[in-house]
Recover the amino acids of this structure.
């Protein structure tokens, strides 16, 4: 993939257990065209294997307990490699990858800060020092009124001080709506899933209540070109943009009296202006919805209904709503299993964990495909070998 020619869509999501939701997540990633997904609390045992079509998976499982664990899903056609993580004290199961895009690179980290664990900003500093451009995403469990939470906790204050001390390089990228809706009535919804961006321009995240968890997927776009203000989270209908409102808001957001006397200050103000343009355009332009889901519509409708009841339960805490949620969740799981079984019955083979199996669970088709690939590769090599080369004899022997 020529990654540098388009933006990248990134998501962070605390799934609270991935096995029972894997098919839902796969459908969500495909329909929303997610390039990179940061998944928290996978609750996977190291021996448990998972597979997603078109994605490479990197995991950091919690060895001490089945609870916890992080994963990164990244499209296979994006050039990348895994990063060795330095010593981390407060953050759990940190995992990172490095993206190679044209003449620059990005480091992307997935982190999880456990509740009641004090945030050590040295961890964030060490991660940011790994690359010039860095994105840190995940469940920070840090609340602050600065990013529209109802209250400020100790970790929220620590993170606020860290951002203030590094305001010229590192920005908080958070949504305007809650990312966590606790089941307990004693707790209030809050914004604790977000990104930290070092010298990277990202759009204002949006939340989609489409997956089964007490958290919601938080989606942003990495703008690879400072002049590229169009996001492709949802298509923008520019014919209906309120340009008068756009000019008014942008004028209010822009600091017209800034004194730029250094290259660093110039870069900082360019970043601020680009973010303001992107946010204002999204606010003043209606979206064109374009959904394309792999799951059948009746399953998607059931998921939407369950999430509606979940929001009502979070608000009123009625036990009958909790019963409905559990019943519908079981029905969704059963329907997805039946759907997968029907797909298996219609097909002569299926690919699982990179291996093609036939209906008798034999590897004959996989072996035939592997041999075909090997022959194609050998023929390509053969065309480069001279007729009198010793390798020519070896090639002829292998073909026979």
């Amino acid at each position: 993939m020529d990654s540098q020619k388009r933006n990248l869509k990134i998501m962070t999501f605390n799934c609270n257990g991935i096995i029972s939701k894997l098919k839902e997540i796969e459908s969500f990633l495909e329909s929303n065209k997610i390039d990179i997904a940061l998944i928290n609390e996978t609750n996977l045992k190291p021996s448990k294997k998972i597979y997603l079509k078109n994605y490479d998976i990197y995991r950091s499982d919690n060895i001490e307990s089945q609870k916890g664990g992080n994963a990164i899903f990244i499209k296979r056609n994006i050039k990348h490699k895994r990063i060795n993580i330095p010593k981390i004290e407060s953050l759990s199961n940190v995992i990172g990858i490095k993206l190679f895009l044209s003449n620059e690179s990005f480091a992307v980290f997935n982190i999880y800060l456990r509740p009641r664990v004090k945030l050590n900003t040295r961890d964030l500093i060490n991660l940011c020092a790994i690359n010039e451009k860095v994105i840190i995403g995940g469940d920070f469990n840090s609340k602050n009124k600065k990013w529209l939470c109802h209250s400020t906790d100790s970790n929220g204050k620590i993170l606020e001080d860290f951002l203030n001390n590094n305001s010229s390089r590192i920005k908080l990228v958070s949504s305007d709506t809650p990312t966590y809706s606790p089941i307990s009535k004693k707790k209030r919804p809050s914004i604790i899933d977000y990104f930290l961006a070092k010298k990277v321009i990202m759009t204002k995240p949006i939340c989609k209540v489409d997956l089964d968890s007490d958290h919601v997927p938080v989606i942003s776009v990495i703008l690879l070109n400072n002049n590229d203000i169009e996001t492709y989270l949802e298509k923008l209908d520019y014919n209906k943009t309120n340009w008068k409102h756009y000019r008014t808001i942008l004028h209010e957001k822009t600091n017209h009296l800034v004194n730029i006397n250094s290259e660093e200050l110039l870069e900082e103000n360019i970043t601020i202006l680009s973010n303001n343009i992107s946010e204002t355009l999204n606010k003043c332009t209606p979206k064109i919805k374009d959904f394309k889901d792999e799951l059948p519509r009746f399953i998607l409708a059931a998921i939407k209904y369950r999430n509606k009841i979940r929001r009502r339960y979070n608000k009123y805490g009625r036990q009958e709503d909790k019963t409905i949620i559990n019943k519908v969740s079981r029905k969704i799981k059963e329907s997805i299993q039946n759907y997968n079984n029907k797909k298996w019955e219609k097909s002569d083979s299926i690919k699982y964990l990179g291996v093609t199996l036939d209906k008798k669970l034999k590897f004959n088709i996989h072996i035939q495909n592997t041999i075909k690939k090997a022959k194609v590769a050998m023929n390509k090599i053969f065309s480069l070998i001279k007729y009198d080369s010793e390798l020519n004899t070896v090639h002829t022997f292998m073909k026979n």
In short: The CA atoms of residues 110 and 137 lie 5 Å apart. The chain has four domains: 8-222, 238-284, 297-343, 345-399.
